[in-house]
Amino acid sequence: MTSAVDKLKARFMDLSQPDGDGIYRNGAAKRAARTELAVGALRQLWAEATAGVSFDVPSTGIGLAAVGSLARGQIGPSSDIDLVIIYEPHAVNDQQLNELANKIWYPMWDSGLDLDHSVRTRQQCEAVTDKDLPAAMGWLDVLPLAGDTGLIDATAASILERWRKAARKRLPELLESAEKRLNEFGRLPYLNQPDIKETRGGLRDSVLVSALAASWLADRPHGAYDEAVEALLDVRDCIHLVANKDTNLLLPPYQAKVAAMLGFADPTLPEGEREAKSIEDLQTRLARIGRTIAFSLDSTASRAEHSLTHEKPRFSFFQMMNPRAGGKREAPTFEVLAPGVVSHEREVVLAPGVDPSRDATLALRVATAAAEFELPINPATLTNLRRCPIRDSVWSGEARDLFVRLLASGPALLDVWDELDFVDIPGRWIPEWLGIRNRPSASAAHRYTIDRHSVEVVTRLGRESAAASGERYDDAHYTALLLAGLLHDIGKRPFVTDHAAEGAKHVPVILKRMGFDRDVVRWATVLVREHLTLSEFATGRNPSDPSVGDELAGRLDHDLMLLDMLFDLTRADGSSLGATAGEQITKQYGWSKWRESLVRAMYNATRYHM
């Protein structure tokens, strides 16, 4: 006996197919069609279930609702369906409830789609959402399907009201959940194999934005943000079509097919080159989408936090009696971090009266202050920094010093660089950076995009060498090491076979333009040219062979300090890959004790020949 939801996944797939030329178009319309199909099928299933049970199902006191992606109208070709039966205890007994639920759950399990289901009273729904943050956010979008829709609407309205009342207390929990996901899944723009739902900038963040807006603490963005969410849903839909299952991971076997389905494959390019170029274009598009959604979450959260701060009275009876305050409300306080840069409510902002359009180094002062004080840059301030008159060919001594301080700020550099990259500032400092921005790495050992990997490397370079000498670098050598870390993969351009040699051509041009002295330029160039050499020699050459150590020493101009710097760069490069060869996604580093022992043996042999 067939049911209303028989082969529902297959019907979803039929509705979701790309056009005749293989391009997936009108994704929003396809999602609306899938939603309409699911709603109609589920309502018919409810009718079949109520007709098929051994008792008369009451017209009030029990109903069927959808939450999650179906309720939002965002259901994908293989998305799971979240259903809830809501009932009042006096309407049906446990045996009747179980009989009715089975008439719905079993056909859904046979439909080909995954099912997330629950049976709860209104009070149970309220209790769960009061304690469980993901459940609360899921219940902010509820779609009544059948039965007592009034009961469902009343339950949804009650949960929304409770959410708004508790939002001020739950805001830290909400933001903490986003931070945990960031630490676990990373950022969408920087991953070669991203989870487009859970990463920062992914679909889960769009749900958080809606939850913040529903709390009335802050309005949500529109325009470019809405377009970004729809574009990411298109990517999700294509992943489902290619994988033929409910998954949000853009894994290598799917990437070329997804890129082609989204129209990134250039038919004029030869096979092989076409796929590689389409994947790069897809990654670039994902990076823009991810940055837009992440920035929207950050700005919405920032406004929500500020609204809580400003709800608190800034003065009291005692302040009114304070002669300093003159009985008036006190002005907000700012802590000066740098000229024109202050902190306000735990964010870096511009000092009152500062005009970004007249200050070329302002972005560097803001970035350095944010990194050294480990504070986020206020979203409005970040947007204002676009107006800075930055010229890549004009660098003052102050600008160079600030840039080096920024690179030397350690792990805090990662977030600050990401914030700056959202408003396109690194590419204005170094136009060559745009050549590697958002580019996926062809190596299976890399988890991150080339630009993110390069910044990761910089954060792992310290003042004291990790080599056997334990040397502490002076300012000039440390500057060269940091610059080499940032630029070591600058030569990874399309169709370049030796990116180290290519990078060594770009580095002197970049650093001379920035005004660094001759020694710094020479050292950084050598390090970029040879950044693979120590590792390659360690794994492919015999350290006991005198000619091997002598050859490597010659490549480094028999400079012991350069050898230490190369060891540190090799170590930072290997330990910041984020994955090892043969793995899909992992947090293991590509710098094992075994590899370090090989590299140290080659380092010692070379040092001997110096």
Strand order of the largest sheet: 3-2-1-4
Structural class: alpha+beta
How big a fraction of the residues is strand? 5-15%
The residue ranges in which pLDDT falls below 50 over 5 or more consecutive positions are 311-321, 579-589
State the total count of DSSP E strands: 7
Principal-axis shape equals: elongated
Q: How would you characterize this protein structure?
A:
There is one protein chain. With 610 residues, the chain is of the alpha+beta class. Helices cover 55% and strands 6% of the residues. It is built from 25 helices and 7 strands. The strands form 2 sheets. The chain has a 4-stranded mixed beta sheet with strand order 3-2-1-4, with helices on both faces. A 3-stranded antiparallel beta sheet has the order 5-6-7. Helix 4 links the parallel strand 2 and strand 3. Helix 19 packs parallel to helix 24.
Which short descriptors sum up this protein?
single chain; 610 residues; alpha+beta; 4-stranded mixed β-sheet; 3-stranded antiparallel β-sheet; 7 strands
Structure summarized in a few sentences:
With 610 residues, the chain is of the alpha+beta class. It contains 25 helices and 7 strands. The strands form 2 sheets. It has a 4-stranded mixed sheet with strand order 3-2-1-4, with helices on both faces. It has a 3-stranded antiparallel sheet with strand order 5-6-7.
